[in-house]
Every structure is written in C-alpha cells, then in structure tokens.
Amino acid sequence: MEWQYSGSVTKSGAELQRLVDDIILDDRFKKEDLVGFNVDREQRRLDEHQATGGAFSANDGWREASVLLHLPKPGLQQEDEELTPAFLVDKIWIRSLLDVVKTGFRDISARKYHWFPHRLFRTRATPEDPNAKPERLFTDVYNSDAMIREHEEVQKRPRNPEDPADVEYVVGGIIVYSDSTHLTNFGTASLWPIYAFFANLSKYLRFKPSMFAAHHLAYIPSLPASLLRFYEETYGTPASAAVIRLLKYDLMNKVWLLLLDAEFMHAFEHGVIIVCGDGVTRRVFPRIFMYLADYPEKCLVACLKTLARCACPDCTVDKCNFWKMGMKRDMADRAKNTRQDTGILQDLIARVRRWIYEDGTTPDSDHIRRTKLGFFSMAPVRSAFLQRFASFGCNLYKLFVPDLLHEFELGVWKGTFTHLIRILIAAGRDGVQKLDDRYSMIRTFGRNKIRRFSDNVSGMKKLAARDFEQMLKCAMPCFEDLLPEPYNTFVLDMLFELARWHALAKLQLHSESTVDALTTSTSTLGQAMRAFLRHVCSQYSTQELPKETQSRQRRKAVSGSNTRPATISLKHKAFTVLNTPKYHRLGDYARSIAETGTIDNKSTQAGEFEHRRVKQFYRRTNKNRAFGHQIALEVRRADIINKIKQSQTEPGKPRTKRRKPKRSSAGRGKHLHVQFEQAEPLPHTQPDRHYHISDEKRFPITLDNFLYENEGDPACENFVWELKAHLFRRLPGGEKLSLDYVPTLDDIFSVRIENNKMYRHKVLRVNYTTYDMRRDQDSINPRTHPDIMMLAPEGSSHPYLYARVIGIFHVEAYCAGESLDGTDDTDMEIIHVLWVRWFDLDPCAPGGFKARRLPHLMWAALDDGAFGFVSPDQVLRAAHLMPAFAHGQSDAALPGYSVARNEDEEDTDWNYHYVGMFVDRDMFMRYYGGAVGHQRGQTGKPAPAPVAPEPITRLAGEGYDDEVDEEFVDGTADDGEPMEDVQEQPLGSDGEESEANEQDGEIEDNGDGHDEDERVESDDSDDDAALGPEDGEAAVDEDEDELARLGFAAM
C-alpha cells in the first residue's frame, strides 16, 4: 500500500491488485532476477534491439521523415511550382508500410488469419421445403466480394518462377484509420496518428484492444506556426485561409506518398515472400480495402471540399438532393453518379495547380469554381492514392466506406435527438423535464448494453456515441405523448424506424434477406424522416439550445469579431439533418455489406479505442515538442513486450471487478432475493451450460417463517401449494405429464422438501447462442435485472412469455411413498426454482414491426395466476422491459405492499411496460426472425422461429406519400422558408459542437486534435453499481478463453 500512495498518483487500486496477482504471486516470479535491474538500461536495450528475424524484428522500427510544401502566392506569377519557395515540415514519424505488413504476418496472431477468402452460405432446406436454395451470409472482410475478387485476380497471375510449387499466393488485407486526438483534457497537446489493421484476422479479434492488432504507421504533424511565419516573411503578407487549406491537403497526401513507397508498390504488384506466423511460407499481395475516418478526414485524403456542392466522398449527387435519401430516384442517382478518377480530371488538376502556382490564381477563386473541379467539389490536389494506384484500375473513392459511429450515432440520430429537444422546448409545458425523468428511470441491462442514464439527458453533456445509441434504444417510451396528436404518432414512427434501421445496420452477421430488409428499411426511414420534417417540424418555431448559443458566442470571439451584442439573442434553428452528407450516406450501407463485409468491420470505433493507448503513452513522455518520437518508442517497446507475452502459452487469469457497496433500505416483509451487502460469489460459468445458479446454502429460509412474515401478501397466497405443484412436475416421472394435468392433493402431499427450507441465491446466469452463432451470457438478479423471457407455447399469438423474477432459490426435494414410476421414495434432488410475477400481452395495443410499436405488456391479474414458479431451463434470456411512462402508475394489479416489489419501489406499479426489442442485436433478431444462431433450441431440437422474417412495408397513411415530396423540390419547407443549408462541423475541444467557418472547401480539422474519441467510446471512471457483473459475481474476462476456443457455437 505504501508503494501505491507514494510517487505517481496514477497507480490505482486495480493496478496494485494486478501487480500482486499477476506478478508477485506468479510462480515464475523470482526476486533474484531483479538484482541489478535498471529501468533506463533495459529501455535502451529495447530501443537498440537490432534483430532482423523472428518475432522481435527491428526492421519495422520508426524513422523521422520530412516533406517539402511549396507555397503559392495569390496575385504573384512564378515560373514553376517546383521553383516556388518551399517550407520543410519535419518531425514526421513513420514506419515502412511494407515492414509493418511483414511484421503483422509474421506475428503469432497470424495463426488465426484467414488466408483464403470464401463465400459463406446457410442451408435453408427443411423437410417441408427440401429444395430451398442456400442463402449467402456476410460476416467479415474475408467473405466479402471485394476480397474474393482480389484473391481471384491474384490467383490468375503468372507465378514467380523462383517460387517453389507449394508457396501459397494470398491477399494481405489492410484496413487504414486516421484521425487526430487530444492527448490531454486541458492544453493543446495532440497527435494525428495513422493506424493499420489486417483484414485477414477475424473482426472479433481484430478490434479487441487486448489483441494489440492496431499497427501504428505514422504520426502526422499539423501545419506548424513556423510555416505561417515563414510565409509572411517570404511574401510580406499572411497566408490566406484558402492557401492554408491547400497546404493541409498537400501535407496529408505527401505523408501518404512516403508510406506508399516504391517497396510497398512493388509488393502490391508482385507480392512479397513472408514466412508467416504459422510457419508457412507465402507470397503476400498487400491490398488496402478500407480507409476509416470521419467526414473531414475522408475529404482530406480524397482531396474533396467539405460540405461543398458534391459533399459525398462516394458519389457526385448534389447536396440539395440529399433529403431524397431512400427514394428510388435517389438510389438511381447514386448508381449513375458514382465518383470515378478519370484522366480528364487529373489533367484538369494539373492545369489548375499551374494557375495557382504560376499564374497566381487564388485557390478558391470563381475561375476555379467554374471548372469541373468546382462542379465535382474537388480540391486542386491529386490524392496520393490516385497517384499510386490509378494505373492498377483502383478506385480511390471506394475506400471510404460508411461509418455508423460518426454518420448515424453521432450524426443523424444525435441531430434528430437535438431537434426533438428544441421541439419540446418550443411546445412549452414540462416536456423536457419529463423526458429527463423518464430516461433516469430506465433500468440498466446486460454488460454495458444499457447503462444508467443521467438526470439531465436533454443537456447532452459529455456523451459518448454509445450513450446516444442507448438513448435511441430507449427513446420510444420516453418520448411517448410528450407532444399532442398527430405529432406524437409521427415522432414515434420516426423513432421506431430509426431504431430498426440502426439494429439492421449494426448486425454482425448479415444474410441476403437481412440486407434486403436493410434496403427497405432505408426507404421507410427516409419516409419517416421527411414526414417528421413536413408535419412536425413545420408546426414549431424552434430556437437553438442554450449550449448552442454559448458555442456560437465563443465562435464569434474566436473569429476575432469585436462586436458584442448587448443581449444574447436565440437564433432560429431548423431541422437540417436531411441536408447533411451523413444522412445521405445511409443509403450506401446495404450495398457496402456485400462489397466489404458487415458495417462493424468499418466502424471507426477501433481507431478511437487505440487513441486511449496513445494517451497512456503520452503520460510517460516528458511532454515537450518531441513527444511524437517518445510515443513512437513507447509503442515499439510495448509491441516487443506484447510479443514476448503472446509467445507464452500459459493463459492469463480472469480479471475481476470490485464494486463499492451500496446501501439498501430494509423492507417491511421477507424478500426472497439476497441483499447487496450479502456476498455470494459465483464462479466462472462454462459456456456449454445453459444456466448457472449457486448450490451453496448461505441464505436459508424456512417456508413457515417466510409465510408468517408475509402473511396477507397477495403474492404469497397459495405459495406452498404452487411450489410443490411445480416441484411435482420436475421430479422423476413428472415430465411425462401433460401440460393440462392438475396435480391432486395426494400428488402435493407426496412432495417433500428437506428441512422445509429454501436456499436463496443472488444471481442466475443464462448462456445462450446468439443470432451470429456465438455464445453470450445474461445475468439475472431480482434486485437489478429481474426480467426474463421464455418461449411461448405453440399456437400463441406472440412468440414469448415475459416475467419478473422475484426470487432465485433451490430446494432439496423428493417424492415420498409410491412415486409416479412405481418405486418407493425418489432420490433427493437439488432443484433450482425461480419465483416470478407474470406479464400478459396487452391485446388493446398491438406491437411489432407492422404496427411500428414495441410490444405492450400489462401485469397479469391476481385471479389469473399472477405469480408462479418456473425452471431456469425455461429461460431463454433476460428481457429489457421499460415502463410505459405515459400510462402512469397504480396498485390496481397488486394492492398495497408486497414482497413482489423491490424495497426502493413505492407500493405501486407502472401500469404497462414496453419490451425493448432493440436493446441488442440478438434481441432484435429474436423478433425479426430467421437468424442462423436461433435455428435450434436449448434441447438440440429445432426451435420454432419466433416470427417469419417479415418484409418491411412502406409507411402508409396521411403524411407518408414517399415518392412525391413536392415541397422539397424547390428546397422549401411547409412554412415557405428555405431549408437551411446545413453546416456540418467537427466537434470542438470543449466537447460541444463547433460551428467554425466551414465553407465550401474549408477543412476545419487542422490536425490539432479534438476530444471526439473521448465521447466516442470513453470508459467512465465510475461504473454504476447496478451494472453487471451482478453483485457478488466474478466478472467474466472479455477475452473468454472458452469462447475463443469454441468460435462458432454448435447449431
């Protein structure tokens, strides 16, 4: 403890525990090995390591590079671009891209690489339809059309005569990510890294930070202040904004020219011989399949002007037509106007650069805007990727795949949610306060699937992308009836379509049918968004939020404006999401799945995760201007140490999480659940088990005492009778009885419970096979995560039954006397039991995809078996039930106090609940139906599909006339006002939206970094005490050895 509380303050309790568990207590630890140890000397040994082969090769080391930026001067004619004054930008730290490829394929993780791409199919033949055609599945880059095409092209090449016959020719798939990031919460320290991932490695491993699969390629400097001083000293005037933008394009692409050097291009064309990590010699042909970045970064690499006329990096559709997303004519326009690199455009770029450098033309002059470059919103810079790959027929623009995180979660949905807040404010009353209260009452679910919402969701302060995702999943109950009809209907329809589209787009395993469903959902989403704009937004005069006003005032101050208004006025704010490139890109998602794999392969989340590692390395530097080199050294040291660790076969110990105890109030009766402060550790659950409950006897309670302490409680009426009837069916012979059989008095008396005791438990774990053929786990705790779902009997109108678990316990029971199978007393058995309160489906409020509403539940009536007992074997998985806030609370279903409610609940219930069928991908597919992983039940027999995969129908009714949106044709809304031309902005360093001047062609992202990655997927320092693992559980290691070993679960 003295070590922790001395020296650096960053040594947390978890790090101290890890030091003890993983180092000091390890059998291999010997203090004699540390005699004479010196940190500086050992670090120098790592830095000076010069091995050229094996796992610890130093050939992939870092080197410092520099580029020359030639400086144009508007109005000054010069002889040639190469003869203009130039500024040397140094301190560019890069690695050889080819050496990184060699290192990646020599790594021990290459044993898990997929060397030969393939098409994956599912068999749909059944006894009823034996001739059903197989259906193609899409999961990863290595079963996508793009990689299969490249592989076939490589196989057609003539073999190198020097290669032995057994040398395999394979494609080395590369995924690139770049973005700037702030390194500190305060100050200006930032880094602009480029990372590379290998597509041959499964995405389930590739994007796990613990796999260290991200390879650092380069750290790009921003334009230095010394360049601006040099420019002013050279020309006598400061550089204009247009010139600075041009130099930013040049800097980025010249760095990429350094990375795409002659060695890499030779390997691209002819391949490179590598002895891979699995010991097999292969000729690897590196191919870049995707470039992951946010919108400004994509424009920077592709040399496109941001938010200009043709703002999309994939097509040249005019931005005034972005609102048509999902229409048939929109899809036709995309196909017709795909971006292509042509010789004409490249000649024009060369000509325009001569105008700028030799004739002194301003880079953003009207003369240049009137050319085809201006028409297609292209900057007068030739992309490094075009220079290197154009001769091979590669289309640069296909690298810029959709990005769900920035385009939808932090783009379309965030913008829509923000405008809904504006509308609630404009509507008056207390809509915003109700919204905040409702979100704060949503239960958490799963392991970080739904976290605890703050008390001020509408403030949107320091929210990560995952927070916006969770807000969408829970939005419908929270927004219900906050606006009057008919606006409420339009809002709920739009929220349902947003949630459905998001769930389909984020599936980690797609089939041809789900891709078709996503295509249709894109169309219906467009309808719902346009209807919301036309019929709801036009009826409310909305103004910017207070945080938007403050941001606007700060921007004015930064811009140098000296005029300050006497009073701060609120600016009118229209709904402009439909005019953004992010909204327009939603139409490309379905098409990109077959081309380059499911959308999670394309998420920038992996790069944002890697930013955390860079920030950790920054803390170890001396924080001076040369910290880029120091971070590079830290990265190399960490890579070498990680390779040493990977070479050891002994698996690591499971991590555990410790949570602070939380005080709970005492109840007026005896509850069956175990209190928070009472510990009952549950050991690791094997993945092949369906459920896991402790068999310990720490918390016994006699039936007589339990009934005495809860006398008069309706929940405990007939408790013993119902319990023994349930046990009778589960004891030997009882499974043979029909479902209609009612146990007799003799049957009940024959059931004996040892010592008349129940043994309470804290947690039930349920393992299940997910839609994508993997194993996952839910934890069910009567205090925190009490809701469960089970398969409904055949012939039911709804596929599932729902219940709330009141208690988890086991009894030791047997049948006395002559048992069902003709023998004497049966053997004593430990029987696990769940005591539940049942929900009924509300017949008056239809839910599902056709109704575009969540399934609506009400409490079962007391005279209709409101309480009962179920076997844990019957539990399919945990359910996420959200109160129907708009329908209020009462005690009509259960009058007065009852142990069926938690201690912190009042003596009332929410009258209705909604089923959160969008809470995760697996839950969504249980309602959509037809998932591969759901084809077999827990018994191994084919399980009935919950619902047939239903086609997504177009929205019908008043306001949903999709193809004829005449009021948009001229760019006006219903109120006659022109639709605002959206100014989509990067996020500022204060965590709020920045609206800096991003006019046609301006790149706001200047490489100084921003804290968007903090909001994208930053870990909260204080996890909510109610989040899983449940109280007393040992946390499940994220790197589950069993799951990694099993891979896909048995069908």
What does this structure look like?
By secondary structure, the chain is of the alpha+beta class. The chain folds into three domains: 61-305 and 605-642, no CATH class; 405-592 and 976-1006, no CATH class; 691-934, no CATH class. It is built from 32 helices and 28 strands. Helix 19 (487-505) runs antiparallel to helix 20 (512-535).
For this entry, give a set of tags.
single chain; 1051 residues; alpha+beta; 3 domains; 11-stranded antiparallel beta sheet; 7-stranded mixed beta sheet; 32% helix; 14% strand; disordered C terminus; Plavaka
Shape: globular
State the share of residues found in helices, binned by percent. 25-40%
Average per-residue pLDDT, rounded, comes to 83
Q: Number of DSSP strands?
A: 28
What are the segments in which pLDDT stays under 50 over at least 5 consecutive residues? 51-59, 650-667, 938-950, 964-1051
How big a fraction of the residues is strand? 5-15%
InterPro entries: Plavaka
Give a brief rundown of this model.
The chain is built from 32 helices and 28 strands.
Please render the helix and strand layout as text.
Layout: H1 13-24, H2 39-47, E1 63-70, E2 86-94, H3 97-106, E3 120-122, E4 135-138, H4 145-156, E5 168-178, E6 181-182, E7 190-191, E8 193-198, H5 203-206, E9 215-219, H6 225-235, H7 241-259, H8 262-270, E10 272-275, E11 281-292, H9 295-302, H10 328-336, H11 343-357, H12 366-369, H13 372-375, H14 384-389, H15 404-427, H16 431-440, H17 465-473, H18 475-479, H19 487-505, E12 510-511, H20 512-535, H21 546-558, H22 581-585, H23 589-596, H24 605-619, H25 627-647, E13 691-692, E14 700-702, H26 703-709, H27 719-730, H28 745-750, E15 751-753, E16 757-761, E17 764-769, E18 775-780, E19 787-791, E20 800-815, E21 829-841, E22 856-859, E23 867-870, E24 875-878, E25 881-883, E26 889-890, E27 909-910, E28 912-915, H29 921-928, H30 966-969, H31 1012-1017, H32 1041-1046
Parallel strand pairs: 5-11
Antiparallel strand pairs: 1-2, 2-9, 3-4, 4-12, 5-8, 6-7, 8-9, 10-11, 13-17, 14-16, 15-20, 16-20, 17-18, 19-20, 19-24, 20-21, 21-22, 21-23, 22-28, 25-28, 26-27
